[in-house]
Write a structure and sequence with these properties.
heterodimer, A: 113 residues, 4-stranded antiparallel sheet, 12 strands, B: 113 residues, mainly beta
């Protein structure tokens, strides 16, 4: 079974600064997807970014980018120019041949004004 | 607008009572899922369904039941056999295989009195 580990229960960042959230996963599959989801206080899960494992190029969505290291099974999220609205729980998720996603335990991000 | 609707948003239950959480989607997605989220923790899969009239147990199916009689609907029943049902429940859907992006509802918070 696949496992997803987020080793940072909490992180904080100063507004306008950059922060990186870590995620590692364990799998024997070669083809899969990785995701970062954001859960703000409203509790609605929102997709931040996705990465296909067969793509070597790291995904980017505006201020959000990933560092995907397939051999190391690492998938970190970098948030640039942090904003107060970025404060939320962030979940890393793995999707493989099965038809469901496996989620990490989450990282709570606090943004200081 | 297309999306996933969960109801009720808040639900209180006495011990020993069964309750049913509703989940409806108009995204024409084949796959639907139920996840449980406990405070400060990640999401754990309860049940999922890839097609009408078929569903599979997830990691924590004991004490829960589901049905998938229509493509749009995937209700979750929390039975009296569930020992610790107080939690936040999230319903999601996706296009299907391979495990791609999940679209989430706003969640239902169940409290057992």
């Amino acid at each position: 079974a696949q496992t997803v580990t987020q080793s940072q229960p909490e992180m904080s960042v100063q507004e306008a600064e950059t922060v990186t959230l870590s995620c590692t996963y364990d799998t024997s599959e070669s083809d899969y997807y990785l995701f970062w989801y954001k859960q703000p206080p409203s509790r609605q899960m929102i997709l931040v970014i996705r990465q296909e494992a067969y793509k070597q190029q790291n995904a980017t969505e505006n201020r959000f980018s990933v560092n995907f290291q397939k051999a190391a099974k690492s998938f970190s999220l970098k948030i640039s120019d942090s904003q107060l609205g970025d404060a939320a729980m962030y979940f890393c998720a793995y999707g493989g041949a099965g038809n469901m996603l496996t989620f990490g335990g989450g990282t709570r991000l606090m943004v200081k004004p | 607008d297309g999306g996933i609707t969960q109801s009720p948003k808040y639900l209180f239950r006495k011990e020993g009572q069964n309750v049913t959480l509703s989940c409806e989607q108009n995204l024409n997605h084949d796959a639907m899922y139920w996840y449980r989220q406990d405070p400060g923790q990640g999401l754990r899969l309860i049940y999922y369904s890839q097609i009408v009239n078929d569903f599979q147990k997830g990691d924590i199916a004991e004490g829960y039941s589901v049905s998938r009689e229509k493509k749009e609907s995937f209700p979750l029943t929390v039975t009296s056999a569930q020992k610790n049902p107080t939690a936040f429940y999230l319903c999601a859907s996706s296009i299907g295989r391979p495990a791609g992006e999940l679209f989430f509802g706003e969640g239902s918070r169940l409290t057992v009195l």
